[in-house]
């Protein structure tokens, strides 16, 4: 015991109890670890335990002696840790920690390095390969290249059609693989992408009604008649305004005005009230009425319009370019159900495509320029899920019109049945701030024409609630309405009224300027306001069935596209407040314009003012745009296909633009630089938008625009953002 140095014994060991030192007793080692320590060369050490190695210090020798005495029982204290976290030495000269758990970490969690708050950077969703949709495009491209390489290797040296590259980029696809669908308020146009012209189907369905629903519908019709009677008085002032403008125009062009023409036409129509019956063998307008003896649940298209059974009610799923949310429907499923039935029946009857074959066809869907996101997402979901089409691509109507006309820059004016849309297209893309949506169209011209004829004692009592009577008025408008003031005069017209199981009746009447006063309502919408009872109900029940598309992060903010031209027109009419100019040093607070909330039941803006504002808003980002837009105006749609309408529009655009310049609003374009382009190759302007969709379906880029079922299931409406050419 004399050779033991007390300094070599840890201070914590001296005076410590066995219980305190028990925590530091090393665990028993496995047999393979008790064979002795190894030298760096891998051979076991020959030095016995407790014997100092040659050249070792005195301190090492003392420690070895202590270890020897501890094992022999001479020293009963167990070694403890040194103060301050000192390590306990083992008998082999290594640490106890290394002997217990040699080479293993205490935890598998790695230490996270703190972010440098002064300068940190992330690449999340900043590369295409981080977005699922773009990764799918890249994978499909790789598969297509691999497949083409495999085919070329298999047929190498063998001449065949498969080895010849396709010059148009279709890669050997079937020619009728894509179906182009253009839904409208009155007509549905469908066809294959390679068809020269589409098939037109009436967007209406006749459903057999139960007794309870039938009674409710009749009550609603009676209420509508009362409203029309109450709203008939404001038309008088509107008619006087339109007549004054027409007289000034006729004087400017030195057209003869016949005095007393109104009294002449009224007297003639009052005396000739009895119709003439046409014999059946001389009847050129005989109608095949729909036979409802089979008691089908529904009829679609022209068959629905020819139903004369009171047990059936006509329903239009789309009105004014949006879903029909009036009392005609009680749930969104009914609206989408009628849409699906019309599409299914039209595809099978017109194109010969059955429901079971939909999985073999892609769809190009044309949507409005100033669209509602709920409307778009509902249609896409209907096509992908309910109708089981594999892929759907979206195209705006303005872009489709330019594609169909074969030009890249134009101001597109689309006058439809129940809405008029205006937009400027540059380099094939719609300028977002130039979009304008007016809630009137060709049907309003028909209603105004009917009201003007009733003022001169029209011999036939037309029922505005009867669809067949309104179709007769549509035919009269097509025949006798005009926008050419030189053709105004006392004229004689005929109304052919087919009847079921009876002889056809023919009414003869006379009219003067009523044929031009009605189209002038497009520039004086106050003529349409009292007569548009359908839009009053449409605006009252807006978003009753389909909820608004709200922003994900702000629940009180609507997430629909907003146009600068549309907002400017609302401000000019005083419907919304103009945004306040920012004060220096204060933060700018953006006010969201919610569509359809601040607007009245009819958007009272003339077509000429809307066109000027659309082009003016498009010139905000590029001052050179007005010249190109005024020189390339396209008028499409069936609502404005009237003789002389292009000349009338050009004159009114020149007049109002000159007045705006005199007021200090200069657009930088001379008055002579206004021109309306004729339809290309004498094509019907009504189908020009569908033709553009057919051209788009044949382009190679459309493969990157298709929304697949898998993407829709995973991302929902968010996939539209990644799969469209425009900013959704």
TrEMBL record:
Gene Ontology process terms (BP): CENP-A containing chromatin assembly; double-strand break repair; regulation of DNA-templated transcription
InterPro entries: Actin, ATPase_NBD
Biased composition (Polar residues): 264-275
Skewed-composition ranges (Low complexity): 39-65, 88-99
Record family assignment: Belongs to the actin family.
Annotated PANTHER family: ACTIN
Record's protein name: YALI0D04719p
């Amino acid at each position: 015991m004399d050779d033991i140095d007390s300094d070599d014994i840890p201070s914590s060991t001296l005076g410590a109890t066995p219980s305190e030192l028990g925590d530091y007793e090393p665990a028993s080692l496995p047999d393979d670890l008790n064979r002795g320590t190894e030298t760096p060369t891998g051979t076991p050490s020959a030095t016995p335990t407790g014997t100092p190695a040659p050249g070792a210090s005195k301190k090492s020798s003392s420690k070895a002696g202590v270890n020897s005495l501890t094992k022999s029982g001479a020293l009963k204290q167990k070694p403890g840790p040194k103060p301050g976290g000192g390590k306990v030495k083992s008998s082999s000269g290594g640490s106890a920690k290394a002997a217990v758990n040699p080479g293993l970490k205490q935890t598998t969690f790695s230490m996270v390095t703190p972010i440098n708050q002064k300068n940190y950077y992330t690449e999340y969703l900043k590369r295409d390969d981080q977005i699922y949709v773009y990764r799918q495009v890249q994978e499909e491209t790789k598969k297509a290249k691999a497949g083409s390489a495999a085919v070329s290797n298999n047929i190498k040296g063998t001449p065949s059609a498969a080895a010849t590259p396709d010059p148009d980029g279709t890669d050997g696809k079937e020619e009728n693989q894509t179906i182009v669908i253009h839904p409208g308020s009155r007509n549905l146009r469908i066809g294959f992408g390679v068809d020269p012209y589409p098939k037109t189907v009436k967007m209406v369905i006749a459903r057999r009604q139960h007794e309870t629903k039938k009674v409710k519908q009749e009550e609603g019709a009676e209420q509508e008649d009362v409203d029309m009677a109450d709203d008939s008085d404001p038309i008088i002032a509107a008619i006087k305004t339109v007549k004054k403008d027409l007289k000034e125009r006729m004087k400017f062009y030195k057209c003869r005005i016949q005095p007393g023409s109104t009294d002449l036409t009224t007297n003639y129509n009052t005396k000739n009230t009895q119709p003439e019956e046409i014999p059946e063998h001389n009847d050129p307008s005989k109608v095949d009425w729909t036979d409802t003896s089979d008691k089908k649940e529904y009829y679609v298209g022209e068959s629905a319009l020819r139903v004369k059974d009171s047990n059936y009610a006509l329903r239009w799923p789309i009105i004014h370019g949006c879903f029909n949310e009036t009392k005609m429907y009680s749930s969104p499923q009914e609206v989408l159900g009628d849409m699906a039935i019309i599409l299914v029946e039209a595809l099978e009857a017109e194109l010969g495509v059955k429901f079971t074959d939909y999985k073999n066809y892609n769809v190009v869907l044309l949507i409005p320029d100033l669209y509602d996101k709920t409307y778009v997402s509902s249609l896409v979901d209907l096509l992908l899920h309910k109708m089981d089409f594999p892929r759907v691509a979206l195209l705006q109507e303005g872009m489709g019109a330019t594609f169909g006309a074969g030009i890249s820059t134009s101001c597109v004016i689309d006058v439809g049945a129940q809405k008029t849309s205006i937009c400027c297209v540059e380099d094939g893309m719609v300028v977002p701030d130039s979009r304008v949506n007016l809630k009137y169209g060709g049907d309003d011209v028909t209603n105004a024409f009917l009201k003007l004829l009733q003022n001169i004692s029209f011999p036939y009592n037309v029922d505005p609630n009867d669809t067949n009577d309104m179709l007769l008025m549509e035919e009269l408008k097509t025949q006798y309405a005009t926008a050419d003031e030189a053709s105004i005069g006392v004229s004689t017209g005929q109304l052919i009224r087919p009847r079921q199981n009876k002889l056809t009746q023919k009414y003869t009447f006379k009219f003067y300027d009523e044929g031009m006063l009605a189209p002038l309502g497009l520039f004086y919408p106050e003529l349409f306001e009292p007569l548009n009872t359908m839009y009053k109900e449409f605006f009252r029940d807006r978003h009753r069935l389909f909820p608004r598309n709200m922003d994900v992060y702000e629940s009180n903010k609507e997430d629909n596209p907003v146009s600068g031209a549309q907002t400017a027109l609302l401000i000019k009419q005083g419907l919304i407040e103009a945004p306040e100019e920012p004060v220096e040093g204060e933060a700018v607070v953006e006010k969201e314009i919610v569509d359809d909330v601040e607007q009245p039941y009819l958007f009272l803006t003339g077509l000429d003012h809307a066109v000027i504002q659309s082009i003016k808003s498009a010139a905000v980002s590029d001052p050179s745009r007005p010249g190109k837009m005024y020189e390339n105006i396209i008028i499409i749609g069936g609502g404005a296909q009237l003789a002389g309408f292009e000349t009338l529009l050009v004159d009114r655009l020149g007049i109002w633009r000159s007045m705006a310049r005199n007021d200090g609003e200069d657009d930088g374009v001379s008055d002579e630089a206004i021109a309306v382009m004729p339809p290309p190759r004498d094509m019907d302007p009504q189908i020009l938008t569908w033709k553009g969709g057919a051209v788009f379906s044949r382009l190679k880029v459309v493969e990157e625009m298709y929304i697949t079922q898998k993407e829709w299931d995973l991302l929902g409406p968010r996939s539209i953002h990644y799969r469209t050419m425009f900013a959704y």
